[in-house]
Amino acid sequence: MAYHITLITNNSSSSISMTNPANEGDSRLIGPNSTYAPSRPVLINKMSGNPTYEQALPVANNIYTLVDNFCFWDNTNSAVNGTGEKGSTINFNHSAADLQITVDSKGYLNFAVASASAAASQSAR
Predict the structure, then answer these.
(1) What DSSP designation does 86 have?
(2) pLDDT value for 123
(3) CA 66, CA 114: separation in Å to the nearest integer?
(4) Is the pLDDT of residue 22 over 50?
(5) Are the CB atoms for 10 and 101 separated by under 8 Å?
(6) For 71-74, which contacts have Cβ atoms below 8 Å and span 24 or more sequence positions?
(7) Sign of CA dihedral 52, 53, 54, 57
(8) pLDDT band of 76, cuts 50, 70, 90
(9) Residue 51 and residue 42: Cα distance in Å, rounded?
């Protein structure tokens, strides 16, 4: 099974940008204080190991906010990992599922299983 993004909520006061090097059609600009539900779920690309930001950038999914440029990927071992250009990290440990990503008011990413409780969520810092 794979991880898919089914909803992105931008609670920041600035636009954010989502890109996917594996599928240009997944790229999207999402305005401030808005929600985006893709017409089809966005696949989170797979990468094993712990690549650096520079190694991840051409392969991993990416969301740019004012606070950082976040790359994240399916680590092939029941987690979504990520790194930001400025050193932020993402560690969302949960078996593959549909995911919702929320960008908080400061620009950090929060991952949660779609339609799940807050107990199944993890923030990127």
Answers:
(1) T
(2) 58
(3) 25
(4) yes
(5) no
(6) 72/44, 72/109, 72/124, 73/44, 73/45, 73/46, 73/47, 74/2, 74/3, 74/44, 74/45, 74/46, 74/47
(7) positive
(8) very high
(9) 21
Dist. CA 68–CA 89, nearest whole Å: 10
Task: Write the DSSP symbol of residue 115.
Answer: T
- Classify strands 4-10 and 98-103 as parallel, antiparallel or unpaired: parallel
Torsion of CA 12, 16, 22, 23, to 10 degrees: 110
So what's the pLDDT on residue 1? 80
- CB contact at 8 A, 51 and 98: no
Q: Which two tokens stand for residue 31?
A: 């305005």
Which tokens hold the place of 47?
Answer: 């990468």
pLDDT band at 119 (very low <50, low <70, confident <90, very high): very low
Structure tokens at 71: 């790359």
Measure the CA–CA gap between 94 and 97, rounded to whole angstroms: 8
Is the Cβ–Cβ distance between 10 and 32 less than 8 Å?
A: yes
HSE toward the beta carbon, residue 75, CA cutoff 13 A = 18
Q: What average pLDDT does range 94-116 have in this prediction?
A: 93
